[in-house]
Structures are given as C-alpha cells and as structure tokens.
Amino acid sequence: MAVNEDLFPNLKSDYTCTSPPDERYNCIAWAAGVTDEWWDPVDGVWPDELPNDDSLVTLVKLYEGIGFDLCADGDLEAGFEKIPLYGMEGVYEHAARQLPNGRWTSKLGPDDDIEHPRADSLAGDHYGPVVHFLKRKRVEINDKSVRS
After folding, report:
1. What is the rounded CA–CA span in Å between residue 129 and residue 84?
2. Could you read off the pLDDT of 76-98 as tens digits, one per residue?
3. pLDDT higher than 80, residue 146
4. Which of 15, 82, 93, 107 qualifies as a FRET site for 63, CA 20 to 30 Å off?
C-alpha cells in the first residue's frame, strides 16, 4: 500500500514500506517496539495510573514508565534508541522510532510500517511538528539490537 504523500509533504517518496497493514498495533506501541497491542487511552491498552487522555504530557509519562527520558534531539547516539513525538496544541498525533542505522520507522495507524530518512519526514499539518524526543539505552548482543 502506498502512503498518501499529500498528507506528508516532507516525505517526498523517500520511504520504504517495511510491513503490510496490521490493525493489532499502532504507532504509539510500535515506537516502543510492541507489535501485538494497540496503545490508546480510550480504545486500547493503557496503564491504569495514567490519565485517559491524548495529551503530550501523558504520552511522555507513558514512555518514561518504560525507561525513556526526554532528550534534546534526534541525533543518532551510540547505545540509545530514540522516539520523536509529534503533536499539535498539546495533543499527540504520532510517535516513531529511530533505527540503529539512524533512519526512522513509523506505523501509520492501522496501515503500513514505513522506514523514512528523518524524524521530520512526517512533520506537517497531519501530525504536526516533532515536539519532543525521548531516548533509552539499547543493549547490543551479538550485533543485534535488543531493548533493555
């Protein structure tokens, strides 16, 4: 399935579809490496201790609860994986994940997973700008990336 590039003018066909549509998980789960749950405060899996809202503040707390911390930017940093959060007016719209090669991976709702060159490839009117970056340590075992 092709991405609606009209929604993402910064993408400019510079992406690769890496998996077919899958309604079991969304971008919020995908950013954390989860592929079997839809993470959503209303219609999915959500921690009881967090508010049932779609605020960026709550989303930051969600990721902090699984080992991420706010950081300054999305620059590739050895030993860490990073997540950009996109949003508008205090509400989150999307999350992605940095790959070990410095590129980014995104799950587009129930649609495809894609790999794209920059965090801001998906920034724009649809998801808003990147408003936060978070990072957590990545454990390297036998040249394979494994989250700690």
Report:
1. 10
2. 999 999 999 999 999 999 999 99
3. no
4. 15
User: Coil, strand, or helix at residue 72?
Assistant: coil
Contact 74, 98 (CB under 8 A): yes
Alpha helices in 40-87 (DSSP H): 56-64
Task: Let me know: does 123 contact 129? Beta carbons within 8 Å.
Answer: yes
Residue 72 and residue 2: Cα distance in Å, rounded? 32
Buried b vs exposed e over 71-96: b needs ≥16 C-beta within 10 Å? beebeeeeebbbbbbbbeeeebbbbb
pTM over 0.85: yes
Angle at CA of residue 135, ends 133 and 140, nearest 5°:
145
How big is the chain by its Cα radius of gyration, in Å? Answer: 14
**Which strand (E) or helix (H) includes residue 82?**
strand 80-88
